Amino acid sequence: MFVSLLLRAAVVAAAPSIVERGSSAITVSKHMPQDAASSILAPFVSFSIEFSSFPDFAGNKSRPNKFSNQLLDNLADLQGVKPYIRVGGNTQDFALYDPNLKTQINGTVVLSESADYPSIISIGPSFFEAYETWPGTKFSHGFNLGKNTTEAMDTLIATVPLACKALSNGRLAHWELGNEPDLFKGKVRPSTWLESDYVGEWLSKSRIIKRQLSQACPGMVTKGAYKYLAPSFAGTGNKLDPVKTWEVGLDTDHDIGMNSMHNYMGGADSPGVTLAHTLMNHTAVVQSVAHHVGVMKDLQEKGLTKDVPYILGEMNSLYHQGKPGLSNSFGAALWGVDFNLYCASQNIRRTHMHQGTDYRYASWQPVQTTKTTIGTKPPYYGNAMVAAMLRGREPDAVQIVNLPTGPETDAAYAAYVSGKLARLAVINMQEYNYTSDAGSASRPSATYQFHLPEVSAKSLSVQRLLANGTDAITGITWDGWSYNYELQGGAPVRLTNVTAGQSVQVDSEGWVALELPHSSAAILNIS
Ligand SMILES: *[C@@H]1O[C@H](CO)[C@@H](O)[C@H](O)[C@H]1NC(C)=O
Ligand SMILES: *[C@@H]1O[C@H](CO)[C@@H](O)[C@H](O)[C@H]1NC(C)=O
Ligand SMILES: *[C@@H]1O[C@H](CO)[C@@H](O)[C@H](O)[C@H]1NC(C)=O
Ligand SMILES: *[C@@H]1O[C@H](CO)[C@@H](O)[C@H](O)[C@H]1NC(C)=O
Ligand SMILES: *[C@@H]1O[C@H](CO)[C@@H](O)[C@H](O)[C@H]1NC(C)=O
Ligand SMILES: *[C@@H]1O[C@H](CO)[C@@H](O)[C@H](O)[C@H]1NC(C)=O
Ligand SMILES: *[C@@H]1O[C@H](CO)[C@@H](O)[C@H](O)[C@H]1NC(C)=O
């Protein structure tokens, strides 16, 4: 049934003249519109890994995690640059250093805090070996700002040399000091804590880091190399205002490399959260990103962050590590494509999707546990499509434009590379539950029409993001490729039972039609 549906798409594609040219056709110019967003940073597709889960994801020198490295290499092949890895999250502000610890980490889960990660944490010297297991990867290391004790100060002083040595040889992207410090207010800091208090503390502790660096790794305090992700605010609860934080002098030392903020669509336990309402909904994506667009506008008007790119240093579908059945389904992969491409169209120049062991929204589970099977999870396939859409490396400038579509279950984007139209992406987010709907009617599909008046190519290749349905948690493919662990440890394997290698014809007037099964997405390659 699935295969015949795709064949139907192929038949339509071969005879575009029979497709009605509805008023919903989208005209796309070959040349980049004047108001297009700034070019994305390469790499755009990047990850944030929970500090306490980093040894699981990366391993150590004697036991590097090759599966994770393979998945990162696949994305490097697709987007042109290997994803950057931010190591941080809630647990970075719990971690204390124990020089005698023989393992990478000793974590104790405190159920009243969270069942998903340890809240009492020591790290040993071998924690830092994890930075040396993935060749050609750049990282940011997250220091503890949350704890303000003698032990925390000792940790800062002792771990700067370990971190800088592990991150030498080109492995450092940025430093980070504190995760979501806006949420410290009223929790690990008094409820009277202000933006200026945070900035004062951040400046004094970052200067300690710099002092330690200049002793242990003097090559890493040069102007170009010494940079932070900050302020890394959660942005929820209106506790500290990011704009005010910049105003009161966050960048006094001119060492902020990325204006990093965090984002989630909602909470895993919030009432009314569903795939159709919360994730597979372009309106909801636009609303979620609007907060950042507002902050950026305000910062720009006040001239506060001129040369500091705005990024999401931690983001994923639903906070509290995702919701089973939603965040780990193919539907969440489709959300990830829409969300990330929309960010790229709104001057958010890189996104780090947050990962952790046993997290429901994770793109992959790096080790076998009693809760979760090791393997590549559906969101990873969304990462693959985003990487393919944003492909490019300097000096190419990749810019994304959000194209107008009708229903909130549709989204479409154009990618311009060095000013020329290179690719179109279309996402259909209509639910199709194959476990319940299959066996009834055949899977519905939708046809999208584009008018490309200046494009000379007569045939455009199609790459599809496919699964049996919205609720699929396995059997997902990108352009016919499986990256599943069970096949070749995450290395790409071309499957023969899914449609790949299709093309669609552009007629003499520049019209082209693309059919998508409900709950699927595709890229049309122009050049
Ligand atoms: C390296 O990882 C292996 C496998 O998890 C573990 O058994 C070993 O203790 C680790 N080595 C160090 C030095 O932490
Ligand atoms: C690990 O942490 C727990 C709880 O803090 C502690 O009781 C235990 O002794 C620690 N183990 C090691 C090997 O340090
Ligand atoms: C943090 O610790 C320092 C040194 O003990 C102290 O001066 C400062 O007041 C503390 N800050 C907060 C917010 O507790
Ligand atoms: C999509 O999201 C918007 C904004 O949150 C909401 O108003 C709308 O009801 C959602 N659509 C569905 C089908 O739930
Ligand atoms: C898919 O399944 C979800 C969860 O059971 C349900 O809420 C939704 O209505 C279903 N969608 C369709 C199109 O059947
Ligand atoms: C997907 O559907 C095909 C055809 O019905 C079936 O053979 C295959 O087992 C399904 N895959 C999964 C992962 O359910
Ligand atoms: C294609 O084959 C793979 C590997 O055997 C299987 O997991 C998947 O469900 C199949 N997909 C379809 C659509 O039949």
Automatic annotation (TrEMBL):
Give yes or no: UniProt keyword Transport: no
> Beta-glucuronidase C-terminal domain location, by residue?
412-523
Question: Per the record's keyword annotation, is Signal included, yes or no?
Answer: yes
| Signal peptide segment | 1-25
Among InterPro entries, the record links this protein to:
GH, GH79_Enzymes, GlcAase_C
Among Pfam families, the record links this protein to: Glyco_hydro_79C (PF16862)
Keyword annotations: Hydrolase, Signal
Sorted alphabetically, which SUPFAM superfamilies does this protein's record hold? (Trans)glycosidases
List the GO molecular function terms. Answer: hydrolase activity
What's the name of the protein? Answer: Glycoside hydrolase superfamily
